[in-house]
Amino acid sequence: MKKLALIAIAVAGFSTNAMANPWTQCGIGAAIFENHPIPAAISNVIWDLGTTAVSSKISSESTCYGKGARAAIFINENFETVMEQTSIGEGEHLNAMLDILEISTADKTNVIAHLRRHVSAEMHPEAYYDALMTAL
Amino acid sequence: MPIFPLNLLDRVIILPFDLQQIITMGCKRLFQLYLLIFTALFSSASHADLAKQLAQSRTWSGLLHFEAGLLSSPRSAISTDHFFFSAQGQTDREAELLATLEAFTLDPQQQCRFPARSRYLHQHFPHLPTVICQEFDDFLTAINAQSLSLLYASGYLGNPASMYGHVFIKFNNTQQETLLDNTYNYGARFPADENPFVYIGKGIFGGYQGYFANQEFHHQTLIYNQTELRDLWEYKLALSQDQVEFLLAHLWELENIPMTYYFFKQNCAYQLAHLLEIVLDVELLAPGKIWVMPYDIIMMLERNGQQREAQSTLIAGVYFHPSRQEALYNKYAQLSLIEQRYLVDSLRQTPSELQHSLLSLPESSAKRIIDTLYDYFAYLDSSNDQLTPEHTAIRKAALSTRLQLPPGKSDFTEGVKKPPHQAQDTSLLQIRQHYQGDLGSSTSLRFRANYYDLLSVNSARIPFSELSTFDLTASYYSKSGKMHLDELTLLRITNLNAANSGLPEDSAYAWKAATGYQTLHSEHASNGTFYAEGFIGKSTAFDLNMAVYAALSGRITTTNVLGGYLALGPEVGGVMQLSPQYALSISAQHQRYLNDWQVDRTVIQFEQRFFNHKKFDLRALLKYDRQVNYSMALSFYY
After folding, report:
1. Quick one: which of B94, B234, B344, B426 has the most CB atoms within 10 Å?
2. How far is B331 from chain A, CA to nearest CA, in Å?
3. Sign of CA dihedral B201, B205, B211, B214
4. Which helix (H) or strand (E) holds B216?
5. Contact at 8 Å (CB) between B420 and B295?
């Protein structure tokens, strides 16, 4: 069932390294969202008494279920906030990203410290993801 | 007494489909087993009575989405065949309950399609076969919800369809960051390239099918907090773990099950109210209203909670998720004057100058300024659709600088905001005594379907704004002995957009738009006219309680009883909340008619609101429109 796609994302057991580049392997920004790139989906959110019908493909797409791909999607969608919180060194988006990757609380500090040393303001989401992968 | 109730016996013996299927399969033993189990289930008349009773219960009716019709008997809002086991399931709850029992007995795997029905029936029929539903169990494990929250998104005047707010639910998993919690949202599905007029028409008149769909919470914060700059209010409900799982079980049953969507009633608020009523056993739809609004669920949750014992209140906690605009205002207000000046100056610097100046500041000040800049640019990015190249460069410089500073949040405190349930209720009944020069005194009755005006006791609504729908005033004039429909405003929206930060580009147009029907009284006659009016201008707020505006106003009428059809002219005004108990608004407008430039009209209006209560207030109005008139009005809100 489609609803299980979300669960599959949550429970998929393969390692983050299995998804070396979700941008190319999963087509983030293209295939995953097909004709509904996120900005377009958001701009279509209008009937508010219920028709905030943003595509549920985000949860149900079957292309990439792994936690690495899920983290990549999260970064891609929330990149500016993730970058801000990386520069601050904490924040709920940063924490959510690390929770997706199942980073233990004890390891989070080290991962964030690594990220703060290796990311830059000029980075794009894909490069940020690569920096994150090297921190794990 | 028969062992089986007659209709059940009929069902067991006569149902041709099941029998044929069983006999065709050559499974006499299976049929015998079926009879044995059913006999066990209904081995007494009390069980049959129980089935009758359960069929009418709130829970069973809720699981089938039965609704009372205006002229017809109750029927399900769902017409999808595979949602029912009985051919009469859409109109006959008892038939569906018996058919469900039969299906769950004959083919226990059917319980995995309907885990909520299964849980409910198992409570009352413990001999029903049990079954392991691995997929559903995995689903529950993945959601891992310990509690449930109702989320209210504040109104958004940038889009007519979003003005009344929105609600959705969130299943809270304490084992992970709340942004990863699963939300369920009820919405209509429509083509991405739908014509706007078709879209509005179909949205209002039932041209779309609505579905529940799940998304992680960060999608909702991206839409509401970040993109539409709307605050989210989270009402954590006092539900047990079983109740939370029961709702998830029902949402599982509803996957891809459509219900017809109607903007004014069968909308997100309506469906969520019905969903929560299944476990809360209270009414969540406001009584006496033929429409349903998101705010009204919040109102009803609070009202029902107050009527209960204190220890069983329905709301376990209220949490605030501010928009980036609100976060900006909160942080900016906490900056020192020197820090505020630094921040504004930084917007004119080159990236290298900015980095240099920020690094020369004390670390805590530099962090506070940068973190405020983040909200500022996020706000501009949404309100202007994108950042300018200059702003993008400054933002990058701020990011680079923040990465060089030691990690750690700035020392801002969270803002204190009044939650939406403290606002005045949304529907108005008002009685007014009025005096108007040559017309003499009149007594008026006013009804406003919703929502609020510039003087309402507002919270969690856009500051200095008004949104009135279907506002009707009928008056009896004692001098003439006549009754008049004085006004029927279909829609009136005012948004002063009054910013108080003083930050560059934190400014938008003040505007108003209204349309409806009015009776215009001249020296000689009273004439009805349709009208459309509005203004556009600029405003400024001195603090959270006071704003003033100046604008160009216009008005079109279908009669020229006052001298013309199209009038234009300046308007100035303001709104002041001088204490929680007292607020006032004032406006002065001078217009000339384009078709007769010699004729003008001046309207000056001063209105006051007394008291600070959800349910009532007292209004006093003093108005000059060719002659002085004044009124006192007692308002009741529900």
Report:
1. B426
2. 15
3. positive
4. strand B208-216
5. yes
Rounded Cα–Cα distance for residues B416 and B532 (Å): 38
Q: Reduce the secondary structure of B590-609 to three states and give it as a string.
A: EEEECCEEEEEEEEEEEEEE
Query: Could you tell me which residue, A119 or A33, shows the higher pLDDT?
Result: A119
b/e B254-279 (16+ beta carbons within 10 angstroms → b): beebbbebbbbbbbbbbbbbbbbbbb
Q: Which two tokens stand for residue B507?
A: 């400014």
> Could you give phi then psi for residue B578, rounded to 5 degrees?
-80, -25
Q: Map residue B203 onto helix, strand or coil.
A: helix
Which residues of A fall within a CB distance of 8 Å from B406? 89
Q: Which of A126, A133, A131, A124 is nearest to A24 (CA)?
A: A126
Task: Give the N- to C-terminal CA distance of chain B in Å, as an integer.
Answer: 51
Of A54, A88, A95, Cβ closest to residue B371: A88
ipTM of the complex: 0.84
Q: Do A121 and B135 touch (CB under 8 A)?
A: no
Q: In B, residues 230-269, which contact A (CB 8 Å cutoff)?
A: 252, 255-256, 261, 263-264, 267-269
CA atoms of B237 and B301, how far apart (whole Å): 9
Residues of B in contact with A74 (CB under 8 A): 218
Both tokens of residue B515? 């349309």
**Amino acid identity, residue B241?**
Q
Q: Cα(B117)–Cα(B95) distance, rounded to whole angstroms? A: 14
What is the SS3 assignment for A7? helix
**Is residue B255 helix, strand or coil?**
coil
Lowest mean pLDDT among B95-99, B200-204, B616-620: B200-204
From A44, A78, A87, residue closest to B403, measured CB to CB? A87
Classified as helix, coil or strand, B539 is: strand
Which residue type sits at B412? F
Give B505 or A50, the one with higher predicted confidence: B505
Distance from CA of B222 to the nearest CA of A (A): 8
Chain A stretch 14-33, residues whose beta carbon is closer than 8 A to a beta carbon of chain B: none
